[in-house]
Amino acid sequence: MTGRMTAMTYLPAPAESRLLGKSGLTVSPIAWGMWRFAGDDVAAARARIEAALAAGVTLFDTADIYGPDNGEPFGAAEKLLGRVFAEDRALRNRMVIATKGGIEMGTPYNSGAAYIEAAIDASLQRLGADHVELWQIHRPDMLTHPAEVARALEKAHAAGKIGAVGVSNYTVSQAAALMAFLPMPLVSHQPEFSALKLDPLNDGLFDQAMTHDVAVLAWSPLGGGRIADPQDARSLRVAAALDAKAIEYGVSRSAAAYSWIMAHPARPIPIVGTQNPARIAEIPDALKPRWTRADWYAVLVASLGENLP
């Protein structure tokens, strides 16, 4: 009887809203990402944002570098978002905006104080905003002392330009070094994490996040498309394991993949990147599946390709 009861005990379900680390901000458990937020059609761009808001999303992730990957200029995604806000300021008030900086074309990374200050000002200008709720360093700059980074972030925070600070693609030790000099909390870590990218489980990042109450924003939660369209043996194993949960709850494989991420006690926030309004509308499906430990570990084992010790 005890074994059966244990097998049917579910991991905690994600709440419909949650605090973003120690920021004091309340956000959705799923974010919408703007890496592919592109084009010149403001009405279509607004429709995507409204679809995300209708789906319960309040956390929107962008970056100043989003543009060149789409054949557009540096800052294009932020500028498009700013054009949407110019048409309807009420939309801005319903969103928690997270943007990033620190990638300098041709350098490639710059977290020097002067660059951070200029990058934040430029992002605000493109967005047509006087502040963003969360500003994150996009990639670590090995040539800037963390004390200098901290001073620049503190200055922007004191000026009211940024509400909270975070890091993206930082190692655990890099984040710890910055935290040692920051006078305010580090609010977020943004690593790549999915059922096919497991590093945060083992490199200490989730442990650090749980220890210091740092929110985890998981980018590429579908493994760069390999979960949605598996081609190799590993991806096919993971897809099959996720499909078992998807079928059980009548949701898509993608929804099951997001759900698997959110089941971890670090409470990672998957950043959904689809730009299709119909698929954006399906985001709430990710809150439906419930996971037993056995189910969750089955996906992990499928990804590893071997049984756990």
UniProtKB/TrEMBL annotation:
<dbReference type="InterPro" id="IPR050523">
    <property type="entry name" value="AKR_Detox_Biosynth"/>
</dbReference>
<dbReference type="InterPro" id="IPR023210">
    <property type="entry name" value="NADP_OxRdtase_dom"/>
</dbReference>
<dbReference type="InterPro" id="IPR036812">
    <property type="entry name" value="NAD(P)_OxRdtase_dom_sf"/>
</dbReference>
<protein>
    <submittedName>
        <fullName>Predicted oxidoreductase</fullName>
    </submittedName>
</protein>
<dbReference type="GO" id="GO:0005829">
    <property type="term" value="C:cytosol"/>
</dbReference>
<dbReference type="Pfam" id="PF00248">
    <property type="entry name" value="Aldo_ket_red"/>
</dbReference>
<feature type="domain" description="NADP-dependent oxidoreductase">
    <location>
        <begin position="30"/>
        <end position="291"/>
    </location>
</feature>
